Amino acid sequence: MKKILVPIKMVLDANVRPRVKADGSGVDLSGMKLSINPFCEIAIEEAVRLKEKGLAEEVVAISIGPAKAQDILRQAMAMGADRARLIETDRPIEPLTAAKLIRTVVEEENPDLVILGKQAVDDDCNQTGQMLAALLDWPQATFASAVAVDAGTLHVTREVDGGHQTLALPLPAVVTTDLRLNEPRHCSLPNIMKARKKALDITPVANCGLDLAARLNVLGVKPPEPRKTGRRVANVSELVGDLRAAGVI
Description:
This protein has 249 residues and is of the alpha/beta class.
């Protein structure tokens, strides 16, 4: 393979408690820590490992989002990506729109493999990879837990209900990553400094010439109900009585 393209997304850090906006229109991200989507981080790690094995010559990271998304692209380059591209926009991007925007980059870059996280932890849509494969008319393998390349054929192992399934895909192809694929590396300080000097191309979303109209309407967002406190019972009989009173048994 000559080139691997890795789309990544900036999301609310997984260790931060989400805060809903006062009007219930969405999650309030002001002043919150944003970071690379965990599944996307796994995708970057896998692409870099394939390059380190001599199976690819270049890894290109791409993100769609505001100017601050440059931070996660710099992180991707600190992990080992050779260069990065940002399609800059401040508006929310739906999965189908993201797939169409990534397709425009695929047509420009001509990668042999597109590898991306199976889903983003902010919306859990799990759609972009599949939609991208359909738009490109490329073979796809989702929820990858192992990836190998042999004689120009991509072998992807994925977990299914009955055990493990291994698919053989001709290249070019689209792969989405599962949590068990790898453990992303920590970025060393020298690599972080080098990433600041690597190429990062910024393209306004208006230059892509696509219809960005929203097709999904969010009716409202609200936090989960607080958990009710439990009660300690003295014995099994009391427990059974409480369960009967609650209509559970």
